[in-house]
């Protein structure tokens, strides 16, 4: 599976190599054990920061890496997917959804204090939007923040929060104007996750075991008003602004996991013998691999085209937002198809814990639901295209 050379320079390829080495040395040898124990060492954040993985897409003055375009995200996602653990990537990179609201909307003092801690791997950042009452309908959120002098008092619940148990900072969507309807009256607040009044419960899941996922309860949590991310009551725009890169990252990861399934299945099919010949010598099995390769090629082309467009200011707008939503659906369907075909190709072995395809198969649905479910993507596409 080859990348389109038109899009990549030496720095891209060197960066991809360094992530590959990092995954081979620091993650893959341990990932089965971490997945089974439903966690991974906190030191991995620092190691990831040291090779520039955490700084991607963030400004240099706060510890980010200058000049990293969406192709870096794409390459990092492909390389990380080789460890075959979406849970690991989701938690290790939870700042990619938690910290952009800080970079783009926090005041200067907060940015200067908080971002270097996160991007150096010292502190963990999470995003808390979803509530027990609903995730797709973001505008219906109920967690309230009541102004009390220079503070807000925050009460409510958030659920399914990635890195929720061990994050140090939550970027939280709250309702600041109880009288405003829907998307109006929502704000984003940066909340210290160790504040009094916050309780956390770990959630058990179908997949993403290496990632901690939490239910959060806020009981009159005191938050300085200076921790507003963006103007008061304008938080819905902050949330929507965040979704594009989250969806691109989910799509790139889904492609990476699909590719990992394909490679494991191809390798197996070239070695496994049935009825006196290799699996790959049976036409039906060959076609299964070709179907996987075909979907992968189409998905990669769309990913690269989208990464290119993301880097062009003149191409920003509703058409690109629609394309990102299409890409998320295409890539997650490719992941679903390839995970299914790979497990089938591996036969009973594909059902055994420890194969890459087994774990990825369990992790398909979260990519199709998280960051905006498939149905919601389609609705958004139709709106962006004006019908
Ligand atoms: C492991 C995991 C990690 C997550 N991490 C985070 C996180 O870090 N931060 C965070 O804020 N959230 C997180 N989420 C939440 C995730 O974004 C939501 O689960 C997702 O947005 C869907 O919301 P929901 O689960 O409430 O489903 P619902 O909104 O209840 O929807 C249920 C189903 O109905 C469909 N549906 C809903 N409305 C419509 C409609 N109008 N038309 C057609 N179909 C519709 C949906 O597409 C979905 O298939 C995570 C979820 C999981 C599972």
From TrEMBL:
One of its GO terms (molecular function) is acyl-CoA dehydrogenase activity. The keyword Flavoprotein applies. It holds the Pfam family Acyl-CoA_dh_1. InterPro entries: Acyl-CoA_dehydrogenase (IPR050741), Acyl-CoA_DH_CS (IPR006089), Acyl-CoA_Oxase/DH_mid-dom (IPR006091), Acyl-CoA_Oxase/DH_mid-dom_sf (IPR046373), AcylCo_DH-like_C (IPR036250), AcylCo_DH/oxidase_C (IPR009075), AcylCoA_DH/ox_N (IPR013786), AcylCoA_DH/ox_N_sf (IPR037069). SUPFAM superfamilies: Acyl-CoA dehydrogenase C-terminal domain-like (SSF47203), Acyl-CoA dehydrogenase NM domain-like (SSF56645). The keyword RNA-binding does not apply. Its cofactor is FAD. Residues 10-121 form the Acyl-CoA dehydrogenase/oxidase N-terminal domain. Residues 126-221 form the Acyl-CoA oxidase/dehydrogenase middle domain. Residues 233-385 form the Acyl-CoA dehydrogenase/oxidase C-terminal domain. Keywords: FAD, Flavoprotein, Oxidoreductase. One of its GO terms (biological process) is fatty acid beta-oxidation using acyl-CoA dehydrogenase. GO terms for cellular component: cytoplasm. Belongs to the acyl-CoA dehydrogenase family. This is Acyl-CoA dehydrogenase. It comes from Acinetobacter dispersus.
